[in-house]
Fold this protein.
Amino acid sequence: MGGTKRYMDVYLLKSGIPCSYREVSEVEPGDVVALDSYTAGFLSNEELEVLLKGKLFLDGEAARILFERGFGEQIGIT
C-alpha cells in the first residue's frame, strides 16, 4: 500500500500552487492531477486508467506503486 498520509497538497500550497481534492469522476480534460503514494494505493485500476489518460504528476513512491500494478509503460518506466 502507499504512504501513511497525504502530503503533496502541503508542498504544492507552500510553493504557491493552488490545489484541491476531487473524485476521479470530477477530473476534467486539461486538469493536472497530483497523485501521491497515499492516494495511489487506494485507487482501483479503472480509476488509475482514467487518470493516466490525462496529465498526471506523481511522487516517486506513487510511480513505484503504479509500476508494480502494471502501469509502467503508461508512466514511462520500462
Observations:
- Helices lie at 8-14, 37-40, 45-52, 60-71.
- The radius of gyration is 12 Å.
